[in-house]
Amino acid sequence: MVISATKELIVHPPLDEISDLRQPLTKGERTVLELFTRKLPPGWEIYVQPHLNGLRPDFVLLNPKVGIGVFEVKDWDLNAMSYRNDFMQVGGGQTQRPILRASRDGESFDVWPNPVQQLRRYKEEIHQLYCPRLEKKNGFAVITAGLIFPFASRDSAAALMAPHQTREEREKYPAYSPISGREALSDGWLEKVFPESSRQSSRYMTPDHADDLRGWLVEPDFSADQRKPLEMDAQQRSLADTRTEGGYRRIKGPAGSGKSVVLAARAAKLAAEGKSVLIATYNITLWHYLRDLVARASGGPGWSNGITTLNFHEWCRRTCHEAGQGWSEEYSSLFAGVPEKPDNPLLRKEWRRQWQPVLDRILNVDIPDLASRAVGEPSVTRYDAILVDEGQDYRLPWWNALRRALKNGGECVLVADATQDVYGTAGAWTDNAMRGAGFSGGWAQLETSYRLPNDAMDMARFFAQKFLPQETIDLPKPEQGSLALHPCTLRWVQREPETAATDSCVAEILSMLKRSGRDGLANADICLLTDDQRAGAEVVRLLREKNINAVTTFDERGIESKRNKMGFWMGDAQIKATTLHSFKGWESRLLVVHITRAFTADARALIYAGLTRLKRSVQGSHLTVVCTAPELSEFGRQWPEQG
Does 407 lie in the same domain as 366? Predict the structure, then answer.
């Protein structure tokens, strides 16, 4: 079949490269692609087997004015092989759960993943993770998730899938979950396959939403700074280009020493060799930063093929889903007894007292243990390489669970900085504790900080020497032989614990706004980092009263907070506001750091992480700390400027 585009459509990969896909198109998929290229109106973009952070649906269609379509194509001949639904009693016999099964050569087997559940998962992840700026409820109205059976009648396919669909999918909103068969394809009837394709526009879809998703489908169009190739010194380059004899490597170094750069460059090199790579983080907000680094290291398009980026708990969830329906249900059951966090602040305080320890146990122990067992199932994705950033945030059992997803002869890299021990987990990474973790050699050590201006580095070193455990600190050293000057402004604003420090934060942000527009600085460079979510949310509210909008991660309602974190720093030209935890790994030239507590080791490690986020520039950078922790008042008096 000759595939050709006859309208103003973008097809990725280009049509003349479709035959080079790692997974060749099936006969049915080629038929569907021809329909899309012939019948879709101008303005649509067609993505064939897009990576989508490792999900790889068959097709994603995108129109910045209309919406999104994600499709699975099943070349099933319902006459040649027997498909059926069996039903299992659940809930004490109160309800029945359908199980899709097939029979061949006298043997029956479960069909997994179930295509309806698979599409539902695509739709949910697009809405929650990859297009986080879509409206929470109405945003689903721009996402179609369709199932196509090129070699079966529509009626027989719909009857087979009906028990697995919700009533809303079958009856209330069938246009957003269409099931089509051979009739629509043979007649060239696009509206039966994709009803929303005839729509001219949607008030819920914008080019910004399209930009958010496009970055997960193909290589994003990065800003000028992000397009620059990664710069590495000789030691960093050696670590990025080589592997150890046993395949396991651990790297430590202080803030700004290039640990993430080495990890990203290694990922790019392995992906270029055709290997599958998992980059694992702890914080969700670190995803985009690492993806940007990998893109810069790759030097060309197609860098994301073969690279999956997940935070640890997202990997656990995906592993349990891939392992099979029983594992997926056991995963969901872990949360069944935990009530949703209430919006009311008073009720939320009681919720934290009663349920936070339970949730911590689920997240830190139960889910990792379940994933560690589920990863042994043959249906779970295995990787040629697993690379872990910010490894000091991991617990040792998490690492051991992750590396079970490694293919035989594969490669593992872990990078860490015990000085930034913000979760109290760095003790797991001593040489004694790491016995049996797969490592045979010592730590590779990076020492030079290429991020911090020297004056800011001196203050960060002073803080670490005064407030952090001396047996674990790893202090940054200045670059030797560099003649470049990186001026910076360091300002400390000390307030009493009970005062409205949020007003001071707003005032300092307004002061920084006056710096933008010169020296290569913009409003979007201003970042508020805080250790108190409620205070951060209040600062955002006060800024909005002054018609100053901020991209923020502050929300305590679970899933919405997750979506906010995924949306953070996605090219939005606004002020940024987030927690010190979520900004780990990032950097900026204009920082306001808000500190409310410094009486625990974790809190002091978090403050150190915040002080090391300042990015150097020959044009200058600026850091202001607004502090209500009395323990730090003496330290603050050492700063050049007082507020």
Answer: yes
429/335 same-domain check: yes
488-494 and 307-311: which strand pairing? unpaired
Same domain, 264 and 203: no
φ/ψ region of 306 (left if φ > 0, alpha if ψ in -120 to 50, else beta) reads left
Same domain, 493 and 548: yes
H or E element at residue 215: helix 207-217
- Of 180, 215, 250, the position where a domain reaches its end is 215
Q: Both 542 and 422 in a single domain?
A: no
**Pairing of the two strands 248-252 and 590-595:** unpaired
Supply the pLDDT for residue 516. Answer: 66
385 φ/ψ angles, rounded to the nearest 5 degrees:
-150, 140
Q: What share of the chain is helix, strand, coil (3-state, %, to 5)?
A: 40, 20, 40
Residues 614 and 488 in one domain: yes
Instruction: Give kind and range of the element (H or E) at residue 37.
Output: helix 27-39
Sequence-separated (6 or more) residues with CB below 8 Å from residue 203 = none
Q: Are residues 340 and 235 in the same domain?
A: yes
Whether 514 is in a domain gets the answer yes
Cβ distance 247 to 412 under 8 Å? yes
Write the DSSP symbol of residue 257. Answer: S
Task: Tell me, yes or no, whether 2 lies in a domain.
Answer: no
Q: What are phi and psi of 414, to 5 degrees?
A: -125, 130
**Model pLDDT for residues 487-502, shown as the tens digit of each residue:** 999 999 999 987 779 9
Whether 502 and 607 map to the same domain: the answer is: yes
E strand or H helix at 47, and its extent? strand 45-48
Tell me the sheet residues that pair with 310: 280
Structural domains counted in the chain? 3
Picking from 445, 475, 494, the residue at the C-terminal end of a domain is 445
Q: In which region does residue 568 sit, left (phi positive, over 0), alpha (psi from -120 to 50) or beta (all else)? A: beta
Q: How far apart are alpha carbons 563 and 639 in whole angstroms?
A: 37
Six-digit token string for 69: 């379509």
Q: Let me know if residue 3 belongs to a domain.
A: no
What are the phi and psi torsion angles at 206 (to 5°)?
-135, 165
Which candidate, 184, 181, 176, 209, places its Cα nearest to that of 64? 209
* CA atoms lying within 13 Å on the CB side of residue 115: 23
Going from the first residue of the chain to its last (643 residues), give the mean pLDDT of each consecutive group of 10, the final group possibly shorter: 52 86 90 97 93 85 97 93 87 79 88 92 88 85 97 96 94 95 96 96 92 69 53 94 94 91 95 95 84 82 80 94 94 90 80 90 95 96 96 90 96 89 71 79 89 93 92 84 82 88 94 72 82 89 83 61 62 75 84 94 92 90 96 96 91
Percent above pLDDT 90 for the chain: 54
The rounded distance, in Å, linking the Cα atoms of 380 and 401 is 13
Q: Is residue 1 part of a domain?
A: no
Write out the DSSP string of 91-114. Answer: TTTTEEEEEEEEEETTEEEE-SS-
The secondary structure element, H or E, covering residue 504 is helix 501-513
